[in-house]
Design a protein that fits this description.
Pfam families: 4HBT (PF03061), CBS (PF00571), DRTGG (PF07085). This protein has 435 residues and is α+β, with helices and mostly antiparallel strands. It is 34% helix and 25% strand. The chain has 14 helices and 21 strands.
Amino acid sequence: MATKHEQILQHILSLEIGYKISVRQIAKTLNVSEGTAYRAIKEAENQGIVSTIERVGTIRIERKSKDNFDKLTYAEVIKIVDGQALGGHQGLHKTLNKFVIGAMQLDPMKRYTEAGSLLIVGNRVEAHEMALNEGAAVLITGGFDTNETMKKLADEKQLPIMTTSYDTFTVATMINRAIYDQLIKKEVIFVDDIYTPQEQSLRLYMTDTLERWYALNEQSTHTRYPVVDDKGRVAGMLSSKDIIGKDRQIRIDKIMSRNPIVVQEKTSLAYVAHMMVWEGIEVVPVVDPSSKLKGVVSRQDVLQALQQIQRQPQVGETIDDIVGRQLSSPESDEMAFHTQVTPQMTNQIGTLSDGVCTSLMTEASSRALSRQKKGDLVVENLTVYFLKPVPIDSKVTIKPKILEAGRIYAKVDVEMFSGNNMVGKGLLMTHLIDR
């Protein structure tokens, strides 16, 4: 027979998503003490089936899936911006797909507002009504309230209408950061998920001779092997470049590369990827806390994992997503990319933000290098000159010019135009990740 604690959890699971829960109500419904009800509700919160929101209460939410991203709900948005719900509490569990900054007239605002989005706007009641009728939630900035009619409409539509004391630009930055936080919660994020366990037969010992390297190379076709001491701890690496011109009878410890870079199982994939680019290495030993060899991770392993991450679905759009989706490819051999400045790409005064400007330049440069089959880039240095402000709805052209492109490095000059006027200029120094 289930305990009272288990019965309460089962009861909570049976409630509809968005249902408001209270300790007193649970205690009365299931004839248990309020202390028992309180502990069970806290356990339900730990399990991710309810969420407690200040000035709102505890509501039943959909259990988050660990297979992909945690979903960013309107309830979480309230916590992020330290706000409160004015109406539409039943919709707080719903997922945020994208946000729209209402820094424009009502008609163009309507074009960008769609079901499942969040309109960030000030004290404009007509905008609140338009968004709710379009199926979007509303976040009012500046600490303003709305009228009772809008609150009732939010309840009818089961769409939250919320308020925060922060300004529009700050709110957009906070939410965008939260979406980025979701992006790092991937299924493959640690070395532990991708490394190849090293067999005893595919390692070298310090006392081996170079003849052993040739035997392993013929057996496995690999050219890089970790070198361990008599206790199994990594002492060096030996690759094909280390053996050139060396006698086959020479001991491994005389020619190996000492003090190699190593990683542990809980090292992040992003760290390993950047380290391989900066250091120009192909294979990294994986060790335990005592430096004993557990396996190796190769550049190919890292690239395959990054490709798998990119194929995973995501919830919500970041600024980089918007930039990449709206940047059109060149229609001719001339390397010119085109886009239009949307509200999400602007700052608090309604012009193209500095961050989006640099993202546009970086993305255009990456595509230009990809067209020459130079691989993906990692920006090492970026110098940008902002010459003129670019208002909402302006058409922008980005023209990257590759000045140098070697095997590892590239230099790209980028010019940005609005109409015939140059509005920005940049110079990128990049590392290349060869595909």
